[in-house]
Design a protein that fits this description.
One of its GO terms (molecular function) is pseudouridylate synthase activity. With 332 residues, the protein is α/β, with parallel strands linked by helices. It has 15 helices and eleven strands. Strands 1, 2, 3, 4, 5, 6, 7, 8, 9, 10 and 11 form an eleven-stranded mixed beta sheet that branches.
Length: 332
């Protein structure tokens, strides 16, 4: 396997080819604010990894959220790439946040609006503060020419979604936005088989790293097989590269399972999920409020095991930015 410096060089050449410096008219028109570090990286073809911000505002309390955000960005830099945390501040979409902006978002917490694609225009028009979910982060990453996004877990089809039609916009975004998403799979509070069926309908290539089974966020196994397995950074690189060059117009989902030694007991988590789901139904908690409620309840019932896994997953999957940020792209 080639050295990281060689891989970085080849990726830089590819990014310059795919995204010429300052070619995006939306950036020139001032619709999106790039941090100086991200702007320079994009202009020179240096690897950039997009990061969502909902985990900062809604994922955990202050100051743990700020500490985790800083740790995640540090790991991206240690691996040779530039982190680009995405958020909307005072109505301005920002790709790449300063330490001051990260701290502001962390202290705002849930006062910042959880922002999916549908919410972007509303938050911007009202000069509000928004923490981007997977769908909104993918949208802004694609807008500025960032091709890789690392997160903990994506949304999916909710249980009983065939009746409620409660389906995360993350899935339709993957079907129309050419960004590679590196994640820990789908949370088991969701309907994983239907989520994978929906992604197939959207034409999204779903790959699993070093396994034939799609991971379930808290645990390494879901019982659902995948049709695409990737075992090395080279495999991931060829997959992402082919998707971009063929202009398929869809995202790529690469699921990386949590290591066995850090995986919470699947039976314990599943039991807690069932209790949380019943309580959510009893309290008529639905829509955007359901997932945060379920995660908080599962965290409570498992004595903090699930939150600990969530934080670990975010950090581990950022390390796996190797798979998409300075990965070993195929030779020309």
């Amino acid at each position: 396997m080639e050295s990281s410096s060689s891989a970085l060089s080849r990726l830089s050449n590819l990014q310059r080819h795919l995204q010429p410096p300052h070619s995006n008219s939306k950036i020139r028109q001032g619709l999106v604010k790039l941090s100086p570090e991200v702007a320079e990286a994009l202009s020179t073809g240096h690897p950039v990894v997009a990061l969502e911000s909902t985990i900062i505002s809604h994922g955990m309390p202050y100051p743990k959220n700020l500490e985790t955000a800083k740790e995640v960005e540090a790991i991206v830099r240690e691996n040779g790439a530039v982190p680009a945390t995405v958020a909307i501040l005072d109505g301005v979409p920002c790709v790449g946040l300063s330490m001051g902006e990260l701290e502001r978002l962390a202290t705002l917490g849930t006062k910042a609006q959880k922002t999916a694609r549908r919410d972007i225009a509303h938050v911007v028009a009202n000069r509000g503060n928004g923490a981007t979910t997977v769908s909104a982060t993918m949208f802004f990453a694609s807008m500025v020419g960032i091709h890789v996004f690392v997160t903990g877990g994506i949304g999916g089809v909710h249980r009983h979604g065939e009746q409620t039609m409660d389906i995360s916009s993350d899935l339709t975004e993957l079907g129309r936005t050419p960004v590679a998403v590196i994640s820990a799979g789908v949370k088991s509070i969701l309907d994983i088989p239907r989520t994978l069926e929906y992604l197939e309908t959207q034409g999204v290539c779903v790959a699993a790293y070093n396994t034939n089974e799609f991971p379930a966020f808290f645990t390494e196994r879901s019982g659902c097989k995948v049709h695409c397995r990737v075992d090395t950074p080279d495999d991931c690189a060829r997959l992402i590269d082919a998707n971009l060059k063929l202009k398929l117009g869809t995202g790529t989902l690469i699921a990386v399972p949590i290591p066995k030694e850090h995986s919470a007991s699947g039976g314990l988590i599943e039991s807690a999920i069932q209790i949380a789901l019943r309580e959510a139904r009893d309290k008529n908690i639905t829509g955007n409020a359901e997932t945060p409620f379920l995660l908080a309840k599962v965290n409570e019932l498992t004595g903090g095991a699930s939150l600990a896994s969530s934080i670990l997953l975010l950090v581990l999957n950022t390390w796996y930015s190797n798979l998409g940020s300075f990965i070993l792209w195929p030779r020309n």
